[in-house]
Amino acid sequence: xxxxxxxxxxxxxxxxxxxxxxxxxxxxxxxxxxxxxxxxxxxxxxxxxxxxxxxxxxxxxxxxxxxxxxxxxxxxxxxxxxxxxxxxxxxxxxxxxxxxxxxxxxxxxxxxxxxxxxxxxxxxxxxxxxxxxxxxxxxxxxxxxxxxxxxxxxxxxxxxxxxxxxxxxxxxxxxxxxxxxxxxxxxxxxxxxxxxxxxxxxxxxxxxxxxxxxxxxxxxxxxxxxxxxxxxxxxxxxxxxxxxxxxxxxxxxxxxxxxxxxxxxxxxxxxxxxxxxxxxxxxxxxxxxx
Length: 290
Ligand code: R5P
What we know:
The protein is α/β, with parallel strands linked by helices. 30% of the residues lie in helices and 27% in strands.
């Protein structure tokens, strides 16, 4: 089946790479706003009987969702055989339970909405905390890809004597896998609660790694608080400034500047979200899955 790839605004670069890697046509479309801020959509490409791929990473999701929905509906109305959403970063994965009475479980509602208009979903390392799989909330077939292999390769190629650091026990599995493929040791910070308001964080076996380059790895850098706090612990333990690697660099507000100021040796992300820190390319990984 022939494939046409459409880029939602801001996703042109990745969409172009995907189209050329899978030998697909790049879709021509106008997405703009009327003066009253409603969205106008017009597809020029022939999509009849074809697979339509919509590339739209979903940071800042609220303003992206309606144009995405309209584009998918327009493609279907023009006879597209199916619409496949490539969302390298998948939003609304964190509010996955009711923490306080009256709260909405937005991860479920968001999943339901996407599942209503996309026939398949491709994404990278969605934040699974309490869920084991995104199929618990998405009802369409989902292909979940992992950046661990790409991150390991980047570390192997760029860092001498790395030691990987997990900020907390939650990150252990993930950090262990990256470390193993990078052929590097890893440590996970340990939290010991001394009282209601007193938590002590220790860096285990710190003496062993004083001459190593610490590499902090996490799935999301949002406010960067997790990384900034971890850098503080590493500094106090006498370690070198760490290289901070995130799969998804959201960098909310001034997070990027604050992370630099906190003493990050370097900040590196994959290009699931466009940012000057993008050094790890995901196009081949997605293209091979498509
Ligand atoms: C938490 O469970 C995640 O793995 C990340 O550690 C977290 O989302 C990072 O958020 P922030 O940058 O706001 O600390």
